[in-house]
Design a protein that fits this description.
Number of helices: 10
Low-confidence stretches: none
Organism: Gordonia pseudamarae
Protein name: Trehalose 2-sulfotransferase
Order of helices and strands: EHHHEHHEHHEHHH
Radius of gyration: 19 Å
Keywords: Carbohydrate metabolism, Transferase
Catalytic activity: alpha,alpha-trehalose + 3'-phosphoadenylyl sulfate = 2-O-sulfo-alpha,alpha-trehalose + adenosine 3',5'-bisphosphate + H(+)
Pathway: Glycolipid metabolism
Number of strands: 4
Structural class: alpha/beta
Strand content: 5-15%
Largest sheet: 4 strands, parallel
Helix content: 40-55%
Mean pLDDT: 93
């Protein structure tokens, strides 16, 4: 794998990163970016709803979340896993794409088993000793991001598929939203600190920019990859925000002001 033809989207959940990677994937030439690093080796599954609330003992919150189910242990060696990830994320022209959330970085480091145990070392191990293009996707509106995350964790619906009953299961809970807001804010803080500490150059993309002009934003990344920006498609996903979620954001802001929740 030539790291000059690879990119890594660094983000936190509900930041708009799925819109970007789906747009890049739709070009057919910008890799097949997926969230390769979210799966626990002990279960081969992404974090389940109650795992996002580890350490929370509020029975009302826990009752709103599906119970965890066992999975299958991933028995691949590090080298086998690496080969599979590189193959799955590549298009025929050799471009690779992937997405990494900060909470997934320990999984990548553990998979790599490289000597220094650092994130930079693990990333370079993945790409044969070099850095990929780093793309930082973030969402400045923490309240909206946390509400979106709370809805998704409850419903287990992470993207719009024309499901008009998306919100049927979701219930507003200020402390549940606040818990996720703390996690998301911490992830963003850690990414920013890491970029500075490592001197990592990044393409910086904010949620508002991305949702306002998804085609233009995708074209920006294609140019950085020295690919044809004219291949940038119209937005392949619908926004999941609706009147109910906007109402919840307003309601959460008021609760946060009263109770000192993160905003």
């Amino acid at each position: 794998m030539n790291a000059n033809n690879a990119y890594l989207v660094c983000a936190s959940q509900r930041s708009g990163s799925t819109l970007l990677v789906e747009s890049l994937a739709a070009t057919g030439v910008a890799g097949s970016p997926q969230e390769f690093f979210q799966y626990y080796p002990t279960s081969s599954q992404a974090p389940q709803p109650r795992e996002w609330f580890a350490g929370v003992d509020d029975p009302e919150i826990i009752s709103l979340l599906d119970e965890s189910v066992p999975g299958t242990v991933d028995t691949r060696t590090s080298e086998q896993w690496r080969a599979d990830v590189l193959a799955a994320g590549s298009t025929g022209n050799g471009v690779w794409g992937g997405k990494l959330m900060w909470n997934q970085t320990p999984l990548l480091i553990a998979r790599s088993r490289v000597g220094d145990g650092s994130l930079r070392g693990a990333i370079r191990w993945l790409f044969g000793g070099a850095d990929p293009l780093f793309i930082h996707v973030h969402r400045d509106n923490l309240a909206s991001q946390a509400v979106s995350m709370w809805r998704a964790v409850q419903t287990r619906v992470w993207r719009d598929a024309g499901n008009s009953h998306l919100d049927d299961k979701a219930v507003y809970h200020a402390e549940g939203i606040a818990h996720l807001a703390r996690i998301l804010a911490e992830q963003e803080r850690r990414w920013r600190e890491w970029f500075v500490a490592e001197g990592v150059p990044v393409i910086d993309i904010e949620f508002g920019q991305l949702t306002k002009d998804p085609t233009g934003t995708t074209a920006q990344v294609l140019r950085a990859l020295e690919l044809d920006p004219a291949l940038a498609p119209p937005a392949p996903l619908k926004p999941q925000s609706n009147a109910r979620s906007k109402e919840w954001v307003t309601r959460y802001r008021a609760d946060a002001e009263r109770n000192g929740y993160p905003l």
